[in-house]
Amino acid sequence: MDTSSPSVFVNAELLRMHVGKKVRAVVHVIQSDGEITTGKSTDEHQLIVKGLPHVSLMSYVEVIGIAESDQSIRTETWTNFGNTFDTQSYNQVCQLANGEFKGLFL
Amino acid sequence: MFSSSQFDATSAFAGGGFSFTQQTQPTDSTPSPAKSRETQGLVPVTVKQISEASQSGDEKSNFVINGVDVANVTVVGMVFEKVGRNTDVAFILDDGTGRMKCRRWMNENFDSIEMEEILDGMYVRVNGHLKSFQGAKQLVAFSVRPVTNFDEVTFHFIDCIHNHLQTKSQGEGLTPTQPQLVDTSLSTPMRNGSNGSQTAPSSQLSGQFSIDGLKSCDQLVLDYLQQPSSIGQEKGIHRDELSRQLKFPVEKIMESIRSLEEEGLIYSTIDEFHYKSTASG
């Protein structure tokens, strides 16, 4: 049992509060050119993801990694979430997991 | 451990991508808020919650989360370090809130067939039994199913929050008013079973309160229909009017109408929306 390095649920707005920490976010891929992937966060802002292989445009990708700045994440693990995903619900989970119900997550 | 037949059905069907698990919660039969191990079913939790759970007695006793005995849980996370042996398969489950050891005993062919499909890095839903072994908490899994629709991941965390809120408010002896209806907004296509079972405890509490003499919706509907103005209406009262006047949603009014009708206190008149009291006033 090890809860020493949780990954914080973030959207673009919450990312800036966790720079330097391990975070997880779902992005909707807009552009993908090898090292840098540009995606739309679940709260409709642009995020840069580094270290992703080439992923198909318009797919949803969950990225777990270190927040390098308030707009970029360096990938450690990633999962292709497919072409359909409920970003609104995920966005709400981000807000709840960082707010009222932080104790269940971090 | 698997004495209840409900759990056999769970592991048999779990590989087909359906989740019958939540239907194993027969809370309708027990009106008391305190849930014993037998009647509870699978509790959605995060690994963080498990790490903070205490044990009520020695290693063999139940875990306690939020003041409630928890034996079986459902967790969604990624598989790592899967190690397969003849007797069992062990792996680490990482759900983003923490990492914990899981073990699946190879009791039947089905166990090994299901575990063969599971690979490191895969998102899975694990249903299992919380156990303490040499001081460390472990999950003894009886069902491990790959996640195919990733809204399930989002759903699981919402489910954990929802369950947390429900057990917290039940522990404080809540007044069962409108908050029960939040359940319907959380339903997703794959977890309708879960939704149904979660609303069951809340409606029992409203039943208890009417016994205590406080006005439940049933009583209010009956009172309204027994007013001279309602008795005077030959067609009876439309349920929408009841909903408007009593400020309850139509679903709640219909529930009350159904039970009052069963009791023989009201009857429907020109159609299934109009009702009158059987008392002549």
UniProtKB/TrEMBL annotation, chain B:
Any one GO cellular component localisation term in the record: chromosome, telomeric region
This protein's encoding gene: RPA2A
GO molecular-function term, one example from the UniProt record: single-stranded DNA binding
Location relative to the cell: Nucleus
Compositional bias (Low complexity): 19-33
Keyword DNA damage tagged: yes
Family: Belongs to the replication factor A protein 2 family.
Domain Replication protein A C-terminal: 182-272
Region named Disordered: 15-43, 168-205
Domain (OB) ranges: 73-146
One annotated GO biological process: nucleotide-excision repair
Keywords: DNA damage, DNA recombination, DNA repair, DNA replication, DNA-binding, Nucleus
SUPFAM superfamilies the UniProt entry points to: Nucleic acid-binding proteins, Winged helix' DNA-binding domain
Entry function: Component of the replication protein A complex (RPA) required for DNA recombination, repair and replication. The activity of RPA is mediated by single-stranded DNA binding and protein interactions. Required fo cell division in meristems. Involved in the maintenance of transcriptional epigenetic gene silencing (TGS) at specific loci (including some transposons) by regulating histone H3 acetylation, 'Lys-4' and 'Lys-9' methylation.
Protein name (Swiss-Prot/TrEMBL): Replication protein a 32 kDa subunit a
